[in-house]
Write a structure and sequence with these properties.
With 219 residues, this protein is mostly helical. The chain has helices at 25-57, 62-79, 86-115, 124-138, 140-144, 149-176, 193-216. The chain starts with 24 loop residues before the first helix and ends with a helix.
């Protein structure tokens, strides 16, 4: 399977063919972690559909609404920064920096897996969820048109944090027992399990911080 090339001791299923006590890294990178992105995008789609009646009510008087809408967009853009306290501005800046850092960490992990010839699974979809969540936050749920968007973002950070913990635990099992997912491929030296645990551990800390900041930031 090209998504998880050279992970020969794992197989594609949830549990390893050779070691039944661990979840396969292929399953984690191809199914479990991308599942957070799918759930988030589906949730946003549902919220968009639930928000549509509200948008239709605003269009009863087209000329009047257009003027109000343009003025509302301008005011919303100003409030994103000027309408916040110093603490809220600081939280927002830190939130943006952490988002960029997390995207870079995802790129780092994908690059190291690719160089080691281990396959990248569907990990790039995590970058999609990070970009979308950041856009939703910075637009305040598309200027308030997206219903309950903050809860969707919070759920995303919790889900990503949980699956990241699972990934660390499974990799720790692999490291403790001295197994290597690419034992037959001879590529272990290019991306050691302990190195990946470090990278994923940093990502877990960032997800935790993003979740806290999401809760502290006002809509």
């Amino acid at each position: 399977m090209t998504l998880c090339s050279r992970r020969r001791i794992d197989g594609f299923g949830p549990t390893s063919h050779t070691y039944s006590d661990i979840l396969t890294s292929c399953f984690l990178d191809t199914v479990l972690i991308p599942l957070c992105t799918w759930l988030y995008l589906v949730t946003l789609l549902i919220l968009v559909l639930l928000s549509r009646p509200r948008c239709r009510r605003l269009s009863i008087f087209p000329k009047f609404d257009n003027g109000v809408e343009e003025e509302s967009k301008t005011n919303d853009a100003k409030r994103l920064w000027t309408g916040r306290s110093k603490a809220q501005r600081g939280f927002l800046v830190l939130y943006c920096l952490l988002l960029v850092a997390q995207i870079l960490m995802c790129i780092l992990e994908i690059t190291r897996l690719s160089i080691a010839g281990l396959g990248i699974g569907l990990l790039p979809f995590t970058i999609v969820s990070l970009a979308v969540a950041g856009s939703v936050r910075l637009s305040s749920g598309l200027n308030g048109r997206l219903w309950r968007w903050k809860w969707a973002n919070l759920a995303l950070w919790v889900e990503l944090g949980v699956v990241t913990v699972v990934k660390i635990v499974e990799e720790a099992k692999e490291l403790k027992s001295g197994r290597r997912r690419d034992r037959d491929g001879g590529m272990a030296g290019k991306y050691k399990v302990e190195d990946e645990i470090t990278d994923v551990g940093v990502m877990l800390g960032v997800y935790l911080a993003l979740g806290i900041l999401e809760g502290l930031l006002k809509d």
